[in-house]
């Protein structure tokens, strides 16, 4: 990606990094999705009906919380039929570049923009006749197991944070019991495995109805900072999370969680898919698998993202060059030796810092003018809270090469730096379309297990004379550091690469929607499997998951209604047809 300034480049690179079976009683989804006689038009009609249902669920819940129709129309958009139809050119494409180009091309017409989808939403009436309490009364609660996205260990919020902040019988009954079980994780500080109580890493929560009965039960698989469980290899992280789920259900009766869905956020979607294929290979080891009814991807990196492609497969890219320079610098760090004394050892540590700074700054980034859209939107004024994300991240890194450490400590810190950087490279490279295609080509998805998906988009790009009607939507948190310093500039960066206005700052919106027709083209032995698309929400990549990643001074956060969002998701998963 060609960035305008070094600060913008650092922010966008950071935002890229942040950013992810046996079933029972699910024949309704299979019947609709795997019937080869279904025409493209009937498949599109089915998807449209599902989008309408989720939109109606969100509206009814939102109105009950005092939200206006105008806000809801901007928070849950109404996509066109083109958007929800499997892209014919992508399915017919003979190579990955052509596939990527075809997906992007389908979202470049005037009817395929965030504002157009908002106008569709305004023109489409709501149906509030749904009895949401009855959906949960009939099926019982939906148990959502949330898998964090890449770099999630440096964010102190759970995915769909609001699910875990209110009263919950599920949490009150079982959270303490999880502390009776031990587990282990890698620690960058210890450079070894460390033990902990399971309740420290597995958080429970829920959403209850007016009658105090559970509607949604949440389980969040948290990764501790420095565990590298949201970096590195997806398959390794999937095995770790499977082990912890198994241990959690040694204390939580499975009959209390009859409707389990793995919910993968961002790269967590890819980890969730790895979890299913690993568990499917030995289902007897994972008793909870019998209650898993599907996987939901939230802004999932299903087919990869152009941002990662640019950084890892484009040698002309500044991000590619930056990664290579830092990797080389880490390989040639000066290691203090015993007996050298404080001054000499400290001098080597200072030189290490100087070499890393030089590597990070010698990449030539084009000094072009600021995007006219960003100028028009006048993004300024948001300041990071130094005790928040940046403080945590800089503290963890600054200790790696702090002057005055003993040679033994300095050597360990150099090792920490190498381990961390390699994990970042491995994890973020897994976001590329090349890596995702290889995964789909080499893994078999269960033919009867549905994958559900939710996409997101930011507002259209502004020009020197116009701004998007969506900029005042409550879904963006335009006063936050997340939006101003990271995500809105990243949106323009991805738009510059793809010319697609429908993107959430990290991924093109259409690439967040699962099409089994495309997967079967990459894997000839893969049968068509059921897929469902809930809709496209008006927020950015981070907003649908948590109130902020980088805390903003003054306590400002993104007000996207994630509690309403989660309850609407739960109701849809339990009853997608109505």
Task: Please specify the SSE layout and strand pairing.
Blueprint: H1 6-18, H2 27-33, H3 40-64, H4 69-75, E1 76-77, H5 81-84, H6 88-92, H7 96-105, H8 114-123, H9 132-139, E2 142-147, H10 169-178, E3 182-187, E4 192-197, E5 202-208, E6 214-221, H11 234-248, E7 260-265, H12 268-281, E8 292-298, H13 306-313, H14 318-331, H15 341-361, H16 372-377, H17 389-398, H18 407-429, H19 433-442, E9 451-456, H20 481-498, H21 516-522, E10 531-537, H22 562-574
Parallel strand pairs: 2-6, 2-7, 7-8, 8-9, 9-10
Antiparallel strand pairs: 1-10, 3-4, 5-6
Fold and architecture overview:
- This protein has helices spanning 6-18, 27-33, 40-64, 69-75, 81-84, 88-92, 96-105, 114-123, 132-139, 169-178, 234-248, 268-281, 306-313, 318-331, 341-361, 372-377, 389-398, 407-429, 433-442, 481-498, 516-522, 562-574, and strands at residues 76-77, 142-147, 182-187, 192-197, 202-208, 214-221, 260-265, 292-298, 451-456, 531-537.
- With 578 residues, it is an alpha/beta fold.
- Helix 12 links the parallel strand 7 (260-265) and strand 8.
- Mean pLDDT is 83; it is low at 1-38 and 385-396.
């Amino acid at each position: 990606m060609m960035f305008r300034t070094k600060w913008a480049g650092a922010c966008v690179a950071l935002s890229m990094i942040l950013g992810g079976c046996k079933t029972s009683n699910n024949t309704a989804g299979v019947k609709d999705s795997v019937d080869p006689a279904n025409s493209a038009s009937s498949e599109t009609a089915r998807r449209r009906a599902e989008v309408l249902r989720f939109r109606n669920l969100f509206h009814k819940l939102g109105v009950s919380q005092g939200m206006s129709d105008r806000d809801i129309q901007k928070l849950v958009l109404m996509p066109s039929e083109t958007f929800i139809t499997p892209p014919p050119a992508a399915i017919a494409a003979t190579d990955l570049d052509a596939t990527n180009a075809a997906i992007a091309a389908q979202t470049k017409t005037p009817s395929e923009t965030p504002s157009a989808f908002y106008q569709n939403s305004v023109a489409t009436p709501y149906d509030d006749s749904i009895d949401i309490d009855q959906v949960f009364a009939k099926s019982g609660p939906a148990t959502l197991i949330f898998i964090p996205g890449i770099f999630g260990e440096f964010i102190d919020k759970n995915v769909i944070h609001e699910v875990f902040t209110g009263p919950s019988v599920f949490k009150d009954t079982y959270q303490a019991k999880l502390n009776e079980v031990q587990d282990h994780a890698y620690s960058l500080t210890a450079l070894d495995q460390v033990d902990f109580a399971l309740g420290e890493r597995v958080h429970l929560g829920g959403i209850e109805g007016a009658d105090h009965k559970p509607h949604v039960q949440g389980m969040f698989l948290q990764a501790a900072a420095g565990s590298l469980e949201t970096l590195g290899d997806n398959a390794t992280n999937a095995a770790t999370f499977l082990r912890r789920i198994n241990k959690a259900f040694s204390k939580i009766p499975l009959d209390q969680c009859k409707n389990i869905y793995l919910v993968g956020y961002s790269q967590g979607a890819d980890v969730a898919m790895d979890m299913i294929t690993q568990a499917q290979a030995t289902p007897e080891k994972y008793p909870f698998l019998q209650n898993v009814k599907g996987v939901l991807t939230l802004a999932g990196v299903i087919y990869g993202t152009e941002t990662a492609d640019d950084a890892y497969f484009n040698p002309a890219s500044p991000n590619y060059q930056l990664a290579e320079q830092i990797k080389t610098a880490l390989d040639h760090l000066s290691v203090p030796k015993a007996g050298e004394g404080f001054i000499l050892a400290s001098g080597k540590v200072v030189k290490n810092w100087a070499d890393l700074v030089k590597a990070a700054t010698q990449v030539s980034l084009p000094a072009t003018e600021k995007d006219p859209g960003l100028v028009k939107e006048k993004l300024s004024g948001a300041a990071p809270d130094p005790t928040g994300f940046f403080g945590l991240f800089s503290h963890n890194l600054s200790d790696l090469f702090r002057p005055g450490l003993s040679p033994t400590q300095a050597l360990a810190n150099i090792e920490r730096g190498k381990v961390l950087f390699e994990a970042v490279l491995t994890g973020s490279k897994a976001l590329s379309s090349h890596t995702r295609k290889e995964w789909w080509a080499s893994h078999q998805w269960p033919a009867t297990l549905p994958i559900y998906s939710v996409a997101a988009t930011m507002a259209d790009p502004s020009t020197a004379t116009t701004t998007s009607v969506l900029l005042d939507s409550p879904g963006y948190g335009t006063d936050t550091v997340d939006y101003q310093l990271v995500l809105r500039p990243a949106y323009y960066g991805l738009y510059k690469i793809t010319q697609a206005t429908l993107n959430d700052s990290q991924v093109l919106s259409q690439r967040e929607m699962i099409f089994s027709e495309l997967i079967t083209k990459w894997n000839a032995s893969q049968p068509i499997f059921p897929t469902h698309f809930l809709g496209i929400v008006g927020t950015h990549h981070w907003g649908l998951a948590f109130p902020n990643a980088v805390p903003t001074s003054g306590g400002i956060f993104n007000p996207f209604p994630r509690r309403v969002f989660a309850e609407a998701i739960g109701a849809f998963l339990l009853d997608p047809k109505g």
